[in-house]
Amino acid sequence: MRRVQLFVKRAADFVIAAVAILVLIAVPVLIVIPIAIRLDSKGPAVFTQDRAGKDGKVFKIYKFRTMRIPEESLDENGNQLEPKYRITRVGRLLRKTSLDELMQLFNVLNGTMSIVGPRPTLPYQIERYTERQRGRLNMRPGVTGWAQVNGRNDLSWTEKIEYDLEYVENYSWWFDIKILFKTVAVVLKSEGIEFKKNDAITAKDVPVAVGTNEDNGGEQE
Question: Which pLDDT score is estimated for 174?
Fold first, then answer.
């Protein structure tokens, strides 16, 4: 039964993503946003980042750029600015409305992500998982998920993983529908946007290339 549910889930993901992309091009949101990003700051409109997907397999996630490029992210002394000071004007609006995540519809289309599922984490972080926590990797990562509608970035990653495990262990179509409805409410309220809680999983003692991942201070979901 679960295998059938997951097959239908993947089919629904493909159809929803394909239709959404066509609509967003026609509107034309997926055309206006890249133009606005390029007019507001230097650099590409879209960035890619390595994330850990199903079974820990690394894939490239797509997202609209919301932060300044490295060359534009230094103070007068040549030191890197704090992440909150490097978010662009357009980027701030995109984050507030979650429109920066729209590019992940292409991840859904190519099968590396699902509409609903545990949010994909950075590869180095899964090396810190316990055996039980690795259970969150048993399903495709999602654009939204159970943790995102129960606190989002107000939660630490350890707390998010507990919600993710609950989702994986109790998955059903109705669970996905429930999460989608709750997602709308969370986005409209602009809740949990800023990343607040580091823990043993997200601690920055592993070198990360500046400018390749919105610096962890940007996109930790």
Answer: 95
For the chain, what's the residue count?
221
**How far is the C-alpha of 201 from the C-alpha of 125, rounded, in Å?**
6
* pTM for this predicted structure: 0.87
Cβ–Cβ < 8 Å for 66, 92: yes
Q: Where are the beta strands (DSSP E) in the chain?
A: 46-52, 58-64, 114-116, 142-144
CB 52 within 8 A of CB 127: no
Place of tokens 């109790």: 170
- Residue 130's Cβ-count burial label (10 Å; 0-12, 13-18, 19+) is exposed
d(CA 64, CA 91): 8
Q: CA 216, CA 208: separation in Å to the nearest integer? A: 9
Tokens 């992210």 sit at which residue? 73
d(CA 221, CA 118): 9
Strands, E assignment, 70-217: 114-116, 142-144
Residue with tokens 């990360």: 208
pLDDT tens digit string along 92-124? 999 999 999 999 999 999 999 999 999 999 999
Cα separation, 20 vs 83, in Å, equals 31
Could you write out the DSSP letters of every residue in 163-191? HHHHHHHT--HHHHHHHHHHHHHHHHHT-
Task: Look at residue 217 and tell me whether its pLDDT is greater than 50.
Answer: no
Write phi, then psi, for 22 (nearest 5 degrees): -60, -40
Q: Tell me the three state secondary structure of residue 115.
A: strand
